[in-house]
Structures are given as C-alpha cells and as structure tokens.
Fold this sequence. Notes:
Layout: H1 5-10, E1 15-20, H2 26-35, E2 40-44, H3 52-64, E3 68-73, H4 78-86, E4 91-94, H5 100-110, H6 134-144, E5 146-151, H7 154-158, H8 160-164, E6 171-174, H9 176-182, H10 192-208, E7 212-215, H11 219-227, E8 232-237, H12 238-252, H13 254-257
Parallel strand pairs: 1-2, 1-8, 2-3, 3-4, 4-5, 5-6, 6-7, 7-8
Helix pairs in contact: 2-3
Amino acid sequence: MNNTIQQRLAAGQIVRTMFLGPLASPKLVEMAGLVGDWHGVWIDQEHSAIPHQQLELLLLACRAARLDAFVRVPPTDYATIMRPMEAGASGVMVAMIRDAAQVRQIVQWAKYPPLGTRGLFQANYEAGFGTIEPARHVETANRDRWLAIQIETLEALESVEEIAAVEGVDWLFVGPGDLACNLGVPGQALHPKCVAANERVAAACRKVNKPWGTLARSPEHAAQCREFGCQLFSLGGDMDLVHRGLAATKKMYAEFFN
Length: 258
C-alpha cells in the first residue's frame, strides 16, 4: 500500500482517519474507501469490544478498500497487543496508559526478539500465511509494525516526556474525551487545562522527533492542535457520521420537521 499512515507521518504530512466503533462493519469500510478521502481507519477494541473474528473481517475490508488501519486496544495482556498485528493491522494504539514502565512492557509484547518477547506464529496474514521466511518476517514486523500510546490519564500526562522517549514507541495520541474528564473539565476540549496538556504532549514529541495525533472534537479544536504540530486527526467515527447525517437530513427537510 502506498502512502501508509506511518509513511505520511514520517514525511511530516497530515493524516485523516476515521473511527470505527459500535457500528463497525465491512460495508462501512467499503463506503469509506469508495466515497471518502481518508488515509486510514482505526478500529476500537477498547470500548466497542469488537471480537477478533470481526476484527479480521474489518481488516480484510480495509485491504480491499486500500485503507490503512490500526487498532485501539486496552493495556491488558500480551495477546491483546499482538493479535491485531497478526491479523494485518499496521499498528496498535494502546489506551489508558499510566506510566513509562507499563509502556516498556507493551513494547516487549509488540516486538520480536531481540527487541521484545513476542512469540513467532506464521499462519496469519502478517506472515503471508506461512510463505514469508521466518527471519525476514521477524525483521519486517519489528521494523514496520508500529506502536502508538494514548495520553489521556493524569499519570500519563505527568510522565509524557518519559513515555515519548521510550524506544519502540512511534507516536503519541491525545484522547481528548478522557483527558478532559480526568482534568475535571469533561467535554471541554478547548479548556485552558486541555490546551496546556496538548502543548505539553507536543513539546515532548518535538524533543524526541516523534509525531502525535488526536481525535478532533470540533474544527476549532483540530485547528488548534494542528498549530501545535499535530499530524494525525480522527475527524469522525461511525456514530458521528450517523448523527451528522441525521442532523443534515433534518435541516434539509426542515419544513417537514416543524
């Protein structure tokens, strides 16, 4: 695939992504590939609890639609981190991080030796269903499969400089919903506390030359994050598209709703 998320980030370009959660389906992925102008999608296995079999179908649809894809996962265990990569996700984004020690453990789970402790299994898409020579598979997986860390807890924010510097972490992602909630201003992504948090994340990433992303809560929020150097933007999710479509339809046919 040309112009993957990681390639665009490395080139300093903006990345537009779409969130797939409660309404995720292969047909929605296909629509995004046909009528959207997205660089990729991210699939939620944290809040939406998408099972692995459904994840495999969604990733298959992403490949058919020529959309790059990554998966958001909770920081619970080794299999949760590793399985999306075996299924063909370009990377994983880990939610609800607390400190750098936790991040270093996740890096171990995500990387093959000598960089980590990931177990080798080749009967999957990532390894060409056994057609890729093991040494080459280990080399390319360690190089190409990336790891993003969400900054959304107070503990992660306080140690963001250390987290950003962990070897094996490719980029950071600010979760504005939980971050605002944890800062005591739920729903206020443009509150001065949240703005200051974004600035701190941006500075930590600049220091180690790593990109960062966020979920845009409004055009104003996205514009401000872009000013701070944010490159990857989640501009809408499946529920957002439904709500926006319903609101636009109601506005279009206003006389029938009065």
